[in-house]
Design brief:
6 helices, 100 residues
């Protein structure tokens, strides 16, 4: 019950940020937090299996940019690799995997 409360709160905060400033909301989702081992909100959501957060427009936009390789120059290769590994871990946990 407490977990779902915080998951909903995180989604609500991300939605408010997105409606206020889409670019800053995106930067928030991929900002490395030193207090959490230089991980990002997106990575934490994947690790916590918070699929609703990962399905949010902000996260989907980030994943689309990563997928199509349209990252800005200041994005480190390490961050991309960590995110891709997190995405792979999420894919392994889900029952439905689209066939390519």
């Amino acid at each position: 019950m407490l977990r779902s409360f915080y998951e909903s709160l995180a989604i609500g905060i991300l939605s408010e940020c997105y409606s206020s400033d889409q670019r800053r909301a995106t930067l928030l989702a991929v900002r490395q937090m030193t207090n959490y081992g230089r991980t990002t909100l997106l990575e934490l959501a994947v690790r916590a299996n918070n699929n609703e957060f990962v399905a949010h427009t902000v996260c989907q936009n980030v994943l689309t940019v990563i997928w199509f390789g349209q990252l800005e120059d200041d994005n480190s290769k390490r961050r991309v690799r960590r995110t891709c590994c997190s995405i792979e871990a999420l894919r392994e946990r889900t029952e439905y995997v689209p066939q390519l």
